[in-house]
Sequence to fold (845 residues):
Amino acid sequence: MKYKNFSAVLFFSLVFFVALNFIIWESATKDILTRKNTDTITGDMSRMGYLPGLNHERVNENNLSKKHMNYYDFSSNIDMITVGDSFSHGMAGGLNRFYQDYIATYTGLNILNLQQIPASRNYLETIVMLYNNGELKRSKVKYILVESTQRKIVTRFSIPVDFNADLAQNNILEENFKKVGNDSLQLPQVDFINNGNFKYLAYSFFYNFSPNGFISNVYKVKLQNSFFSIGKGDDLLFYKSDLKAISKNTEENIVEVNENLNKLAELLKKDDIKLIFMPAVAKYDLYRDYIKDKQSYPKDPFFDILRGLKKDYIFIDTKDLLLKELQKGVKDIFYIDDTHWSYKASAIISKDIKEKLEL
Amino acid sequence: MLFNSYEYIFLFLPITFFVYFFLLSKRLVVGAKGFLVFASLFFYSWWNIAYLPIILSSMLFNYVIGNSLNDNYAKSKINKKTLLSIGIISNLALLGYFKYADFFIENFNFTFEGSVPLLHLALPLAISFFTFQQIAYLVDSYRKETKEYDFLNYALFVTFFPQLIAGPIVHHKQMMPQFASRWNLVKNYKNIALGLFIFSIGLFKKVVIADYFATVATPGFDTAAVLTFFEAWATSLSYTFQLYFDFSGYTDMAIGAALLFNIKLPINFNSPYKAKDIQDFWRRWHITLSNFLRDYIYIPLGGNRKGNFRTYNNLMITFILGGLWHGAGWTFVFWGFLHGAALVIHRFWKKLGFTMNSIAAWFITFNFINIAWVFFRAKEWDDAIKVLKGMFGFSGIVFSDKALAKISFMQEYIATHQEFFGRLMFGSTPFSMLIVAFIIVLKFKNSNEYKDSFIPSYKWLLLLIAVDIYTVLNLSKVTEFLYFNF
Fold:
């Protein structure tokens, strides 16, 4: 082969490659991998599955009368502490993205949201540390709400909890609180030449042959009814890990989780603090019975098992609450493009919390 | 701009190439070279335009001094030795001021309990490289080894963008004739093909291999409080490979980019981790630097011509200065000291007539180099000690979960000796990658050997296209979990 031909073909191949990236970027992936501005949010499922047509664009805003505490409002008067994962940090974005704001509005409680203390192994140990350090008593906390997404509950809470864990540190709340100041929904900067362009092409092709396109972490299946306000509303996007986690939701493991929660509830009771456990139902589990081809998808026994166990804490059965809304035909309980629920779910769940707390 | 950036690969380099040869095709030789100088200075200024006056003044100053020293200025009234001294001292003063001022102030304050404030000067880009290049030019001018050079060619020699930022340290003897040669004024498709070939390999080495190992080495050196045995070895070996693939990758890109313009830069690496003794290592690692140290420090000090004691002294001085050149810190000095000491021991060993099995020789050499790199990389002494402690087992031994599962017969021992077992900081992937890296550096030819034996074919074309695409996509990798906040 001639050097001239070699150089020319290599050069023009790269030019073609750059042009191809540009075209795919401008026509599809830019909408998936970037946001118009910092306040306009789209969901993780559509991004991870490279499904721009299922974006549910929403703007961060809040119209509730009372909000949970942020850094600037922090005071020592805390009624409720919440600790959890992305559900507790408003990662869904959109209208009234924090469920804590609904609880605060409905009940009038002062609510403080915390990160997990790095030295603790899970949220339960974070609470134990705060208790043993005396912070909860000092702050006169009345309620602790622990939240976790369903798929992570067993891995997080079935491990042994050290009920003697403590932190020799004063002002834990104030220090910890500073870290939770701003829950950023920013996306990393991406150049127009990126492997996402080719993932978009690959996934678009493969989704025609498999519900998760063989390689995607997002399943895309059809529902019997329209449950979303985007497109026909009968597409369900859910995270692959929701399925993978089912194998861990055995009776033995869930009993361990329940035991640890009961022990924590007992500890907190000594200072008149009530423990609320709010497992955030997995999107897959909530909509599973409405999947057209549901026989191909296993049932998750998590809620069925947990319901049957004796509890010393207040249990918020998010699956039961939200299933009733689905049965009424309410749309967008979860966002179509996200693995988080919407403000509608937060409102319903918070009303239930208010009733259970008898406030 | 970095060599491994979109703006360099897809904008700066092709535009510079096409404009340069377009001007040459119109027989505007001066215009083309002027454009190349302009492009190189643009490349330099991209980092920070405030640095531009420094390189311009340095270039002008050294050109005037150099031309005053060579044979064509026999009528100069200033003593040549004085002129040379002024030239060298000025260059070193510039380097010393920007690079070493705070180092000296810190040590002065420490020694004399002073409180002289630090200057916190930003280090001008590439100052170590263009200073050394021009010092070599001045010394050779003094020795009458240079000709009268056209300022444009001299400016190209100093600023030529492929080698400006990180070498190779080029010698005027190698470069000036190439810039002056008429044969290099026409597109040469062989050079273009070879240039693209080695540039692609270099980019792959830097972006895919080196940047991977950085993800292991950096947390180990900079953030981990303690490193257990395997973690420490993974950290140190990862840095050993990161440094090699990063630096040699960058050099390959420099050589490749230069070849596009028909300029052959000297090679800087020749499979250094295949070395079987420390002298061999320094003939394979950063070759242009070791040549400079030899020609302008070691030999002027007397080299090996003044007896054993002087030879060993000269080696130590050369390598301590070499260490200091790399960075203003005692860890760099100590690294240089270690290599100087190793060379002294090697010389002594050879003088006594001892030999060693080649595998053992390689093993000792490689491990010495690996351990010495720990000091080179560590930001503080404590970081170096942390890594070395881990490497020698003083911080415990931890196996990965996967490995533990395979040694089930030891479960009981593990359960009763918990302090020695637990989760590794990183999983087992780094160890697999290290094995791959060892195979690459020990079994395969290096990039220059491939370049020298390169013959264009469809096989190479497809391979190169695949490598380029894979590498460029790695520059902006979209990882879903970044967005997926749980």
